[in-house]
Amino acid sequence: MAPTSVSRRIKKSIEAFSDKDYEGSFVHLFPAIDKTAKKRRSKDGVGSRIKSFISDEEALISGVATNNVFKGINVDGVDFPTAIYKFGRTSIVHEGELDERLQINDGSGLQIGHVWSLPPSYLTGFIVAVVLAPENAGEGIEKELSIQLFGQTYQLNELWGKVEVIKQKMCELWQNDRLFD
């Protein structure tokens, strides 16, 4: 396993997350999301493919982040993928920082309105979504890391590209085989 930009960025995102540098975690995470999204939708422009990837993985991301599944959240005409793209990725690339309308809070919960205030576990959800993406099968990081998801411990390197493992677990937990339809 030779690390590519996706796995190198995920490793750096995890390191920043571990240091509670949530903005730094996003800085490393967005290129990994984009590269994964580009593999999935090679003909789409950057904004379209990143928002589509987030939309595709919204149930997985929210499930990992909150232990509840949220899909299709839209507040004042701004949906979840647009908020993350516009207030996160675009702001970091063009302004060097997260927009004030996207905040990672101290774990105090989820608040959505003019400001999208997310718990740090949302970063975990995004990282997991990139790792699990079938497009990233064969990736890996040199450091052995484990992650606890839905009461079970997994070796991170054993999850690359294996989205069905976690989706199946989530469907069992929520007793809903149509969770990802």
Q: What does this molecule look like?
A:
By secondary structure, the chain is mainly α. The protein contains seven helices and seven strands. The protein has helices at 5-18, 22-40, 46-56, 58-66, 80-95, 121-132, 163-173, and strands at 74-75, 78-79, 102-104, 111-112, 116-118, 146-149, 152-155. The strands form three sheets. A three-stranded mixed beta sheet has the order 3-5-4, covered by helices on one side. A two-stranded antiparallel ribbon has the order 1-2. A two-stranded antiparallel sheet has the order 6-7. A hairpin with a 3-residue loop joins strand 4 and strand 5. The longest helix is centred in the N-terminal third of the chain and has 19 residues, at 22-40. The termini are far apart. The model has no long low-confidence stretch (mean pLDDT 95).
Q: Tags for this entry?
A:
7 helices, mainly alpha, single chain, 181 residues, 51% helix
Layout of secondary structure:
Elements: H1 5-18, H2 22-40, H3 46-56, H4 58-66, E1 74-75, E2 78-79, H5 80-95, E3 102-104, E4 111-112, E5 116-118, H6 121-132, E6 146-149, E7 152-155, H7 163-173
Parallel strand pairs: 3-5
Antiparallel strand pairs: 1-2, 4-5, 6-7
Poorly predicted runs are none
Q: Helicity, in percent?
A: 40-55%
How many E strands?
Answer: 7
Structural class: mainly alpha
- The tally of helices reads 7
Shape summary: globular
Compute the gyration radius: what is it? Answer: 15 Å
How does the major sheet shape up? 3 strands, mixed
| Assembly of the depicted chains | single chain
Order of helices and strands: HHHHEEHEEEHEEH
Rounded average pLDDT: 95
Going across the biggest sheet, name each strand in turn.
3-5-4
Tell me the fraction of residues in β-strands, as a range: 5-15%
What separation lies between the terminal Cα atoms?
Answer: 33 Å
